[in-house]
Amino acid sequence: MSGIGNGDRRTFLKGIGAVGAMVAGLSKAAAQEPLTEILQSPRRGNWDDQFDAVGTRSPEVKTRQPILSPATSTYVEQAIVAYQGIVARGGWPQVNLTQRLKVGSKDPSVRQLRQRLKISGDLPSNSGDSDVFDTFLDAGVKRFQQRHGMPADGVIGNVTLSALNVPADVRLGQLETNLVRLRSMSGFLGERYVMVNIPAAEIEAVENGRVAQNHKAIVGKVDRQTPILNSKIYEVILNPYWTAPKSIIQKDIIPLMRKDPTYLTRNHIRLFDPQNNEVPPEMVNWSTDEALTMNLRFRQDPGKINAMSSTKINFSNPHAVYMHDTPQQSVFGQLLRFESSGCVRVHNVRELTTWLLRNTPGWSRSQIEAVIATGENTEIELVDPVPVYFVYISAWSTGAVVHFRDDIYARDGVDSLQLSSSTTTL
User: Fold this and answer.
1) What is the pLDDT of residues 334-391, one digit of tens each?
2) Residue 311 phi, psi dihedral angles, 5° rounding
3) CATH 2.40.440.10 fits domain 192-395
4) Which regions of the chain carry the CATH code 2.40.440.10?
5) Could you tell me the pTM of the whole model?
6) Catalytic residue (choose from 148, 324, 347, 403)
7) Most Cβ neighbours (<10 Å): which of 6, 194, 252, 358?
């Protein structure tokens, strides 16, 4: 360091200290992995291209502000003004990837990606113009993914790329469409209420104007859509029986019985006629729709393989839908959670059940767990029914963050917003 003057030396040491403090605040593994990847990259290039103090953590974009709060409409109005400005300035560039990107990758499309994320506010405007995918850019991609309801893994797959390439004017229109929806829900919704946001496949339990709980959900497929509705949750059933709706009997169970006559027995589903007499499955002609013409009721016994698993949450509605647990917990880890026949499956449903039953005497979390362990069908009426709202909000803002979701049911009017039907490949 003999060539460094005293002033420059102090500046150099100060910089080293800052980087050292940052690295010390991370685990050794978290700090070492990006550095090793950069050092071993066959396209190392210059240090100012790829070294950026290691920070790859994705920023937190969730808040306790309910989507249906009055503030959301105000924030969306502000977002509309901002997006009008983006559109007036020409929008953002298309990102044309030619390879899968990771930290250290070098590709001409990286500059397009940087510009795209700078314009939408996911990347600082002073973050450079390198064609190397550095960890600043990785963090920007993760922030973008979080805002769009995707796993923040920094990997630009088909759905992420499709979301990046939705034009700015289309996003502006999406905000305008959803502002109308939000304003329609601007009244008093209750001190406590549950909101199911269908395109986000998420649930909020709201209390005193703040989100008390947030749950992932599984909602209806495109051809079996979850309806928009307002109601009140009046009952929780532990260890419920499951009665198959006519649509599932016709589309799923009858075809399965034609392939496997033991299906009903193996899944503990029993048949009952209108007089409540049990009917053996072998008495039904499964090659026809006789099960429907006989008006048979298909009822599954409580248990671990029950379609609703431990819990059913009831509320009055003309669509015969409800919220429930599921034995298939792995589905909540999916990117696209549109798999049900219209009802809503709830992740960590026992936490929501405890919250719903909080004012109903005798139903603490431990008491709920104890009853579930018995396997006995138990109906619990809520002392204070809780309002529930099924809504379709595919774009909203929390002030600092503008959120967008897949227009799964094509209700926003633009094909490019149906990201799950994208055919883009890398």
Assistant:
1) 767 888 989 999 999 999 999 999 999 999 999 999 999 999 999 999 999 999 999 9
2) -145, 140
3) yes
4) 192-395
5) 0.79
6) 324
7) 194
